[in-house]
Amino acid sequence: MPTFNLQPMFSPKSIAIIGASGDERKLSARPLVNLRNQGYKGTVYPVNPKYEDIAGYKCLEDIESLPENIDLAIVSVSAKQALPVLEQLAERLVKSAVVYSSGFSEIGQEGSHLQHDLTDFINRTRIPVCGPNSLGFYNQSEKVIATFAAVDFDIGDPVAFITQSGAFGSFTYAMAKEMGLGYNYFVSTGNEAGVDFFDYVEYFAQNENVKVIGGYIEGARDLEKMTQGISAAEKNNKPIILMKVGSSQRGAEAASSHTSSLAGNQSVYESFFKQKNVVQVYDEEELVDTLALFNKGKISPNRGDVGIVTISGGAGIVMADKCEEYGIQTANLTEETTSKLKEILPPFASVNNPVDLTAQIIQMIDHFEESLNIVLEDENVEALVLYMQLGDAIAPQIIPKLKQINEQTDKTLVICWAQPSQKTKDALLDGGLCWLPTPTRAIKAVKNLIQYNEGRERRGQTKNDLPEQKVSEIAATTTDLKNAKTEYDIKQELAGYGISIPRGALVKNVDDAINCVEDIGYPVVLKVASSDITHKSDNGGVKVNINTKEEVIEAYKSIISNMEKNYPSANIEGILIEEMIKDGIEVFIGCFQDSLFGPCIMFGLGGIYVEVLSDVVIRKAPLSEQDAEDMIRSIKGYKILKGTRGKVPSDISALASDLVKISEFCWQYKDSIIELDINPLVVKSKGEGVVALDAAIVS
Amino acid sequence: MPTFNLQPMFSPKSIAIIGASGDERKLSARPLVNLRNQGYKGTVYPVNPKYEDIAGYKCLEDIESLPENIDLAIVSVSAKQALPVLEQLAERLVKSAVVYSSGFSEIGQEGSHLQHDLTDFINRTRIPVCGPNSLGFYNQSEKVIATFAAVDFDIGDPVAFITQSGAFGSFTYAMAKEMGLGYNYFVSTGNEAGVDFFDYVEYFAQNENVKVIGGYIEGARDLEKMTQGISAAEKNNKPIILMKVGSSQRGAEAASSHTSSLAGNQSVYESFFKQKNVVQVYDEEELVDTLALFNKGKISPNRGDVGIVTISGGAGIVMADKCEEYGIQTANLTEETTSKLKEILPPFASVNNPVDLTAQIIQMIDHFEESLNIVLEDENVEALVLYMQLGDAIAPQIIPKLKQINEQTDKTLVICWAQPSQKTKDALLDGGLCWLPTPTRAIKAVKNLIQYNEGRERRGQTKNDLPEQKVSEIAATTTDLKNAKTEYDIKQELAGYGISIPRGALVKNVDDAINCVEDIGYPVVLKVASSDITHKSDNGGVKVNINTKEEVIEAYKSIISNMEKNYPSANIEGILIEEMIKDGIEVFIGCFQDSLFGPCIMFGLGGIYVEVLSDVVIRKAPLSEQDAEDMIRSIKGYKILKGTRGKVPSDISALASDLVKISEFCWQYKDSIIELDINPLVVKSKGEGVVALDAAIVS
């Protein structure tokens, strides 16, 4: 699907306002008042037959009177009127529109019809319409205010914020302001009848006035658009920071009634975002803090850990604890650093990370400055968090020094100044410094920056191995898997993909069984082959550890008689005889269809790991080698595979390679496989490979 | 140890200031200025030969000139002068003192001597001294300001705050103010030379002006004081809310250099606090939010879950997600509630929890009010969080309604009003409402309240089973365990405590072995008995699954010969023959000595659970039945014991009972056991008991 041209929407030279009110107390008067007050430079055409002019703009009587090719139409009419108005606008060749009206899919049946028609209109005309049921949007730098929300333009940062909840987005807008961060672009996507959350992501990824993209999202609607938007941002080195909600059952239900988006499988989202280096945040403070930090933070040439410098021992302890909790490292300072610090700091200061300068450092501002530079210059430090807790009196001496240090370093400097007065906060922010309000919040945001920088480097190294490229290489298959019903058939299909299965054969009588075992070699396993029987091992359909010809005969007969008893009407296709694999670690690999992500691969260790501990990882197919390795490393049971306490490590690279193959198999047959379950797959010792012992498909 | 009388310290009728400065720019002038400015009602005696009077108070020339029995002396002199000054004050029968000076144990060797002497002084005279290296304290209601920190008394809530970091404590003081919460008491404990963190807890527990006790703690110094302080608070129904830091390696190291307190084993602290229903919080915002909520929250007669009402779908989704994340429930509203809501709310509102009234409710304030009452009246709701996001215009209509609802309900009502103006915030707080700033923070604090209320109920029910009472019942033993070296001896000791061990005997020759097996019955296990051999099974010292007389003879000889080969100099005391226990789930129970908590019991499932997953729980001994059950339930492997997928449940009550017995054993022998390791202990099916298969002691 071609992308929308959102340039006329966000950077319009002309704006028509349909349903503009002359009554300033009304919400529908807001956009016009806003445009006038903020000094929008383009042409504005209010359309309302009742007025001669509104807010100093000449009024037009109807849409027909509008000039052609207007860039943006603000549609402030009822839900039922919206589509007729848009049709008229389309005749005037309008280039984009925003519909505020509620009364679409969020109200149920009746509204869904209206929304459906609106979607048709957008698809047919390719006119991008923001909304409906949207708070609208703004572009601060060009004073384009297409929202009826109250806006107050003072700080403009190169940050674009996209939200599926207008109210929640506005809340973060106000929170961000308190952090000294002003979104240059803000858009409330509403019900997304045609223009999708990730259409906006893609637009901002290509907008040179945007450096960081933030958002609140309940659910994505289109995997292709999501992938495309994220890729565009990555290509242009723009971090995306998303708060994805709806992880709980209740939350997901509420999301589906809120903007009728599907919250989806949280863990697939998580692994998808992680894989694409999208920064996922988990609460509203982490969201604005991370945006504020990414707006000012740096990507230093070398990766490293966190340096902590405080004037309070307590804050240092808290920050060290939080580093560990959030999975980043408190930097090991080099001996050079600590001995330099020792030279200039008083004896009761702590020169190890967290460095405690103590409050007395304030009487030695030069040493304070030098200490910060020493820590910043440490090769193990990627970002430095400074905790300060001082009154206004000392701030004017300190802040210019901090500003200077920040300008001179290529590393990220975060100032956690506790409860600053407005004056001090303004001085910090005007100085271009990144201020974060508490030690815990500072470390949480820094964690996101460090992990993002790390991910960026990792992605840079493995770019040739991205699954997106593989997707196009895997030809769509014409065969479906309808005929692969029994374990034997499925294994044959898997084997065709290079996945190891046990040596074996399907036999139809005892003599063939005996002959076949001579080829395979003892011990063997006998299993009934029937697409009618699902739980074969529970009802006498499987015999393991068969070591002699006599045992083969007995096992064969016993399976047949058990099946005749337990499944009298089942169609038995034969007995599958396979070599018995004794040693190795059992894992399972599954595949299921997610409504958004398509085929997803689940992986974990068997037995209690999955049943008791839910120690499972999920990623969308197809997988790259890197994805497969990440999946294997991310489960708790990884230690088992790696070999604990002197035990031999398992063949992890063979496992990774089979995960990739299985994911490609599932991708290729995505239209015919509902579920695939390979359980167990045995991972042998390093160098000895893996074997899929059992496989079942729901198709 | 008798407790200190802290009444003269916090509620002094007279205050002497030693080293009072007349120069208002100096820090040492602050207390005096503060006392005057705030209007302290008692008598103040500045002591300084250089002045006639300071700040309107008549100056005394020296300590000798002070009247006797002054309640509080503020000692503002150097570290070296502090003790001589205190000795002089003791002669004047001063009742308490505070020492600000740094230069004690926090600076190392030299300071440690000074602090040691100070501790001696305090123990000898029983004069409570706050500090040294302390920011001091205040009592807002009586205008007692014994701190040189800047204080600004406006809001006074019945909250006492105790902190081991003056700076961090002051930071939370300022944060709390922003939340509309003013600590009535604040104390910076400094190095705690004599008066300990929990001495203050105990004092505030008995102070009728205090309702909630909060604190920042790096480490406790005395288990008895801690237990006593917490018990006093519980007896008086006062919640304790603590932020315990130093959970990370780096953090713990920093804590030990900061106030020379030991951060200790975090998981023992956690289980101890949980057991005692102390609310442990993990960051500075959670700390002040929880204090603010506990100050205003209610303990309703019935336990229940969280009702969520919003005017923004997004905020509702976030709160539902956070309930799940924090382990509390979003209440299931009764059918009565939802149908009542349906009657009065517009059709696009959501009447399920989270209830979304939508922003349009503001045009129907009566329905808004009614909706809140309907949800509050639901029997499944214990606390209600209301999310609001409105400008100032509507606030004066809404807030009086909220106030009225809050006064009429016996349930907790939390108002999460997003980014209120100062005016709106003041109106909310003046109305006695509990305001919390963000959806995530509101739910986190509510979680603490709900869990505290739950814990209170639980503690009320199990009060007769508290381990404190057991401790006194367990007589101190006179025997030590020096003679119990071999597995056999240790098992005999355990058996004496009622702990089940396998049937068996120690034999010294093959004939005795054969006879003994006839009593026990096959199959049996043979193990070498020697205190010189630790890893018996690794070197041929153990033979299992012995089924015949011949196998007994062979096993016996083989063990002896293996030992002669592998441990030529070991003293072999014989062979331990035991019945072989085949079925059951293997767990381990260990005991170790913690420097603060004394003997602690570790418990977990064997094998990978402990080695790979670190699925282990630790509590201090002795344990109550309730503790033991809580421990068992808290590990991830509990599902295994409970019986997954139709498997028979294990004998959990026998396991709990043995955990209690083992903890009592460790408690009784705490002076002679360094470590005890029972691994494995086999838990058989329900009703069939448990058996300790192996046991080792480090003594």
From TrEMBL, chains A, B:
One of its GO terms (molecular function) is acetate-CoA ligase (ADP-forming) activity. Residues 491-544 form the ATP-grasp domain. Keywords: ATP-binding, Ligase, Nucleotide-binding. Pfam families: ATP-grasp_5, CoA_binding_2, Ligase_CoA_2, Succ_CoA_lig. Signal peptide: none annotated. The keyword Phosphoprotein does not apply. In the N-terminal section; belongs to the acetate CoA ligase alpha subunit family. This is Acetate--CoA ligase family protein. It comes from Salicibibacter cibarius.
